[in-house]
Task: inverse folding
């Protein structure tokens, strides 16, 4: 069956708008994706006709929103292959999910001198929470290196383990290099050393089928807004046995069983980690986004995006002075680059005037920029609605910009 690209694009009204009088070419999908009608309508419908706080009211509307919220949790569980809805915690996004693990796992399982392994390609949101924990508890952070293609050095990885290693945190897909890291193999190694593994799925879950049991990871994080869902909702998957032992992250309503001034007992999972009114509209719309991608088929989305990535890299490589970053054999829908010594900000600004949206800068990965010997890069990133014609427009725009320098 051919990929129904015209129908898909028609589902995203924003794609037919113009910027500076030119058709929009949106290639900043790793930062956030555009939203299909089904997601926007799910949000509108809930506010128009169902809205009430969840888990609190006996009244009809509250019960209806609660049902939608809990159905969304089940939808997420099935989507990532978790064993139980107790393992699905709704958060504000990947960043909050990572902070939750650093705080709650850190509080419960880590002592001074315990070691956490991070990769050199981590996003700041998987670095800084661990540094905050280092300041509080004196943990040790060690960094897994990579080669110049952007592939992790697996021998160095194994050598970093000591009896104090407790946790490995790794981006499933790098938001800069597009490298797909070998989570299943890394989890096996971690487990053989008595450590746990967290996979940051912010850039994997939107692009290919992710099954937490097949991966064998202990935690997985992702953001709704990168998978065509709304901003402000995200997910933490955690193995039930671990979540069960972990301290709550925040205190407040919803996360308690009973409160007295002397002592508070906590709700069962996953509510123990969900203090306060949750984003129940966001969860419902996230479920609509999952329905949307599954309606197309994750495997078809992956094939389309991989094809676009290969095509873009091949075309970009022909531009004189082009430096592409991230050439791992297993690479997802991200192409980071610099051309000659043009500042990435200039590239991005001039392309923007041609209607082409890309991201420039350090991509919240300054240690990776340092490893690559640059201050910043430009980055094009693809989604299920992008086309080869858009890549042609992008490459033509790049050629035009490069000639100006
Ligand atoms: N990367 C990018 O343009 P939030 O902001 O919480 O939804 O996601 C944070 C995050 C964590 N891990 C990875 C691998 C990510 O790519 C991101 C977000 C965006 O690359 C915004 S900086």
Result:
């Amino acid at each position: 069956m051919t990929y129904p690209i015209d129908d898909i694009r028609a589902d995203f009204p924003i794609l037919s708008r113009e910027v500076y009088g030119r058709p929009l070419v949106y290639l900043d999908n790793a930062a956030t994706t555009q939203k299909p009608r089904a997601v926007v309508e799910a949000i509108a419908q809930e506010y128009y006709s169902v809205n009430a706080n969840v888990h609190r009211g006996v009244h009809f509307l509250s019960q209806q929103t609660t049902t939608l919220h809990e159905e969304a949790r089940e939808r997420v569980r099935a989507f990532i292959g978790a064993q139980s809805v107790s393992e699905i915690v709704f958060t504000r996004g990947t960043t909050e999910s990572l902070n939750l693990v650093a705080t709650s796992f850190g509080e419960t399982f880590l002592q001074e001198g315990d070691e956490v392994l991070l990769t050199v390609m981590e996003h700041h949101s998987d670095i800084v929470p661990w540094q905050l924990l280092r300041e509080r508890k004196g943990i040790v952070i060690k960094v897994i290196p990579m080669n110049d293609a952007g592939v992790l050095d697996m021998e160095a990885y194994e050598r970093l383990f000591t009896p104090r290693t407790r946790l490995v945190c790794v981006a499933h897909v790098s938001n800069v290099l597009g490298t797909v890291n070998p989570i299943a193999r890394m989890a096996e190694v971690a487990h053989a050393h008595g450590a746990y593994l967290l996979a940051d799925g912010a850039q994997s879950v939107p692009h290919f089928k992710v099954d937490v049991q097949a991966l064998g990871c202990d935690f997985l994080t992702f953001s709704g807004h990168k998978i065509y869902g709304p901003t402000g909702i995200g997910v933490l998957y955690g193995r039930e046995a671990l979540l069960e032992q972990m301290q709550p992250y925040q205190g407040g309503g919803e996360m308690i069983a009973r409160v007295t001034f002397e002592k508070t007992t906590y709700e069962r999972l996953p509510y123990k980690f969900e203090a306060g009114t949750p984003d129940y509209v966001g969860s419902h719309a996230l479920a609509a986004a999952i329905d949307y991608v599954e309606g197309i088929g994750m495997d078809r989305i992956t094939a389309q995006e991989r094809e676009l990535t290969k095509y873009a890299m091949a075309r970009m490589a022909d531009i004189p002075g082009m430096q592409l970053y991230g050439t791992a054999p297993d690479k997802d829908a991200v192409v980071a680059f610099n051309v000659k010594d043009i500042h990435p900000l200039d590239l991005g600004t001039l392309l923007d005037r041609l209607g082409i949206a890309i991201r420039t800068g350090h991509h919240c990965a300054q240690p990776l920029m340092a490893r690559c010997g640059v201050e910043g890069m430009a980055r094009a990133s693809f989604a299920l609605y992008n086309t080869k014609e858009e890549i042609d427009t992008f490459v033509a725009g790049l050629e035009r910009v490069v000639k100006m320098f």
Notes: The mean pLDDT is 97. The chain has 14 helices and 17 strands. Residues 60-80 form the longest helix (21 residues). Residues 5-30+297-403 form a domain with the Aspartate Aminotransferase, domain 1 fold (CATH 3.90.1150.10).
